[in-house]
């Protein structure tokens, strides 16, 4: 590597070291990769900002709007949005009727036995037995063209 290239690489490393967003977010955004903008159908991503008094605010913002493209969707408060999604999910999924339906489907799946599995287990037993016999024959010194 030339000294010139080495110097350029070192400059780039130093610049990247001071780059914003170098460290990962300190806060977990539960809806990352699951939330889609209602205006432009692009993913919404987690973002934070500080107010004048230094308080940090967390929100989700459309990726298109964040990058200054065509979407005019404003950011949505993280805490409010995540709570609304959790409440809606609990109310929809954790109903007795839904749980009963899921458990019935699981029982049906468990009752269906894979017909291939017993055949494979039998073949595995036969191969294990053949290998064991071969090892025994080699240990007893019964070498032939076949065992070699």
Give a nutshell description of this structure.
The chain is mainly alpha-helical and 148 residues long. It is 51% helix and 11% strand.
Quick tags:
single chain, 148 residues, mainly alpha, 2 domains, three-stranded antiparallel beta sheet
What is the secondary structure topology, with strand pairs?
Elements: H1 3-17, E1 44-50, E2 56-62, H2 63-66, E3 76-77, H3 78-93, H4 96-111, H5 116-139
Antiparallel strand pairs: 1-2, 2-3
Kindly describe this structure:
- The chain is 51% helix and 11% strand.
- The chain is flat and about 85 Å long.
- A hairpin with a 5-residue loop joins strand 1 and strand 2.
- The model has no long low-confidence stretch (mean pLDDT 81).
- The protein is mainly α.
- A three-stranded antiparallel sheet has the order 1-2-3.
- The chain folds into two domains: 107 residues, no CATH class; 36 residues.
- It is built from five helices and three strands, in the order αββαβααα.
- The protein starts with a helix and ends in a 9-residue tail after the last helix.
